[in-house]
Write a structure and sequence with these properties.
With about 120 residues, the protein is mainly beta. The protein is about 0% helix and about 55% strand. It is built from no helices and eleven strands. The protein has strands at about 5, 10-15, 20-25, 35-40, 45-50, 55-60, 65-70, 75-80, 90-100, 100-105, 110-115. Strands 2, 4, 5, 6, 9, 10 and 11 form a seven-stranded mixed β-sheet that branches. It has a four-stranded antiparallel β-sheet with strand order 1-3-8-7, with no helix packed on it. β9 (about 90-100) and β10 (about 100-105) form a beta hairpin. It is globular and about 40 Å long. The chain starts with a strand and ends with a strand.
Length: about 120
C-alpha cells in the first residue's frame, strides 16, 4: 500500500508559479514511479510528469520547459514546480504512484490560473 498526501495547489495569475508536493507513506525507492496527472472539467485525466525510482523523467509536451518534477528521497516527497502557468493549466492535479503493478492516487489539489 502507498498513501499519498498532496499540497500546494491554489489560484494564481497567468505567468506566475506554483509548487505542488506529494509525500508518500513509504520510501520512494520502493515505488517504481511517481508522477502527476491532471483533470480539467469535462476532460480525461492526463499525464503531466513522471519520475522513476531510477530518476528518469518524462513530461507531457504541453508542459515541457515550464514544469519540473523533482524529489527529495529523505522526505519521500515528489515535487512539481510549475512556472509560466497558463489558463489551460487549470485542473485538479493528482499525485500518482505505481508499485508492483498497483496504481495509487492522492486526493487531488486544485490549480486555477486566471488570465
Amino acid at each position: 500500500q502507498v498513501q499519498l498526501l498532496e499540497s500546494g495547489g491554489g489560484s494564481v495569475q497567468a505567468g506566475e508559479s506554483l509548487r505542488l508536493s506529494c509525500a508518500a507513506s513509504r520510501s520512494i525507492f520502493s515505488i517504481n514511479a511517481m508522477g502527476w496527472y491532471r483533470q480539467a472539467p469535462g476532460k480525461q485525466r492526463e499525464l503531466v510528469a513522471t519520475i522513476t525510482s531510477g530518476g528518469s523523467r518524462n513530461y507531457a509536451d504541453s508542459v515541457k520547459g515550464r514544469f519540473t518534477i523533482s524529489r527529495d528521497v529523505a522526505k519521500n516527497t515528489v515535487y512539481l514546480q510549475m512556472n509560466s502557468l497558463k489558463p489551460e493549466d487549470t485542473a485538479v492535479y493528482y499525485c500518482n504512484a505505481v508499485r508492483l503493478d498497483e496504481w495509487y492516487w492522492g486526493q487531488g489539489t486544485q490549480v486555477t490560473v486566471s488570465s
